[in-house]
Write a structure and sequence with these properties.
Layout (H helix, E strand, L loop, with lengths): L3 H41 L2 E3 L5 E5 L2 H4 L3 E3 L6 E3 L1 H33 L3 H21 L3 H30 L41
Antiparallel strand pairs: 1-2, 3-4
Length: 212
């Protein structure tokens, strides 16, 4: 006769099995939707490109070879594709910077939220979600994108200006400083002319040629 513990374990196993059976169709659809396009791209990357944008069902590693190499159109020799390597290295650098920044900011935040009481944990979760949405809307390129598109060009311009000023000082020229804006000279309004009294103390008479 089965004990209560064995019955409980059997019920738990049936419950887990039923959950997996109910979730299997959704998991299968998600798996196919996620891996299907990637699998098609992977298969097409090993095929020979056609003359009109299509592909020929012939094996060719040229697509993967062109990631780091380029073929000369005249003598058909292979050489290192500097532009492709630069883009590839920039992508890796941005990924590493983003991962480090995410770990540096996310792990302490998650630890702080996990150690709060149950009463304030939901409030902290709401505040962090609002902050995350605000950062995403304010910086759509991410922190690495801000560094690459804003901070790095600004620092390059700053260094170029400092080098130019240093070179001018070494050659005896004044540094390229912007002159301070000068205010426009203010002119006093013209004073109204007053009639000068004559010798008798009266006002001058009308000018000759005019009616009295």
């Amino acid at each position: 006769m089965a004990t209560a513990e064995e019955v409980a374990k059997a019920a738990e196993r049936r419950d887990v099995r039923d959950r997996w059976l109910l979730s299997a169709p959704a998991l299968l659809v998600i798996f196919l939707a996620a891996t299907g396009p990637l699998l098609i791209v992977l298969i097409y990357s090993f095929l020979t490109p056609g003359p009109y944008g299509d592909v020929k069902w012939q094996f060719s590693p040229d697509a993967w070879l062109s990631v780091f190499m380029e073929r000369d159109i005249f003598d058909d020799t292979l050489s290192l594709a500097a532009a492709h390597v630069t883009i590839f290295w920039r992508s890796i650098k941005l990924a590493v910077i983003t991962t480090i920044a995410t770990l540096a900011l996310g792990f302490p935040t998650a630890y702080f939220m996990a150690t709060r009481s149950e009463k304030t944990r939901d409030l902290w979760l709401f505040l962090m979600a609002a902050l995350f949405i605000g950062v995403v809307m304010g910086f759509p390129d991410g922190l690495a994108g801000v560094f690459e598109n804003k901070v790095k060009p600004w620092w390059a311009r700053r260094r170029a200006a400092m080098a130019s000023d240093k070179l001018r000082r070494a050659s005896g020229f004044a540094p390229t400083l912007k002159p301070a804006p000068q205010a426009a000279p203010r002119t006093a309004p013209a004073a109204a002319s007053k009639p000068v009294p004559d010798a008798k103390g009266g006002m001058p008479g009308p000018v000759s040629g005019q009616g009295a």
